[in-house]
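Annex B.
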Amino acid sequence: MALMITDECINCDVCEPECPNDAISPGEEIYVINPSLCTECVGHFDEPQCQQVCPVDCIPLDPERPETQEQLMAKYRIITAA
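Ferredoxin: predicted structure tokens.
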């Protein structure tokens, strides 16, 4: 699944630079995650880095975008041309 940022986001700016796929960007009111670029850090790290640094725990899995580990790895390969 891609991750999503909920409206509990406090715009602290710590998640954006942690994303290896540049999937996180400022939205109109809070940061947003581009699901086409989010691989939950599969291929880069063992755990999603944005979740690790978020001080308010507002980055859950997006239930509307289910993806298997294999699908996330395939997306990683496309994004990185690996």
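The beta strands are 24-26, 31-33. Residues 19 and 31 are 12 Å apart (CA to CA). Further annotation is deferred to the next reporting cycle.
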